[in-house]
Amino acid sequence: MRVTKAQAKQNRAHIVATAGRLFRERGYDGVGVADLMAAAGFTHGGFYKHFGSKADLMAEVSANGLSQTAAQAEGRDATEFVERYVTREHRDGRGDGCTIAALSGDAARQPGDIQKEFGAGIENLLAALQVASQGDTLGDADGRAARTTMIDMLAHSVGAIVLSRACPDGSPLADEILDVCRKEILASLAHGNSDQPAARSPEA
Q1: From the UniProt annotation, which stretches of this protein bind DNA (predicted)?
Q2: Has residue 1 been placed in a domain?
């Protein structure tokens, strides 16, 4: 039976979504093409009708996952982001969680194309968070300060998830890392906001 273009497009999207979940759970090198296609419900040979290589799939999955993370951050300021991100639910939901926290370590050992996708994805996430937190009309100095705050917050948030996941699931330390980091990040954000000059009311 001939597969229509619409069905082929749907099949490809399903493979990408399945690969994203498996890569986040096991890492890029922990999933073979045969296992991936079986999990997606297709034959091994069907993979090459959609992708030239596993590396091509990895790059597309990375871009897709990073775009989803940035989209989920839109409209949420830094405080809201941290409260949702640095949690036990996110820590345990590796397959459905943030691509940055799950695969940054792997990406550092992958070809340049994947690192480029991560660089672009992290930039997009920082931009979304900065707009939600500070708006998009800041001057140069304030814009640089806001970017510094977003980078610091994101690095600490990702690090908290990574460290917690490195601990055994039932370890008290896994929760302690999340609790301490979330509290400290939020305190730092609150302190930074208190240092900002109060917005002036429009003149009558």
Answers
A1: 32-51
A2: no
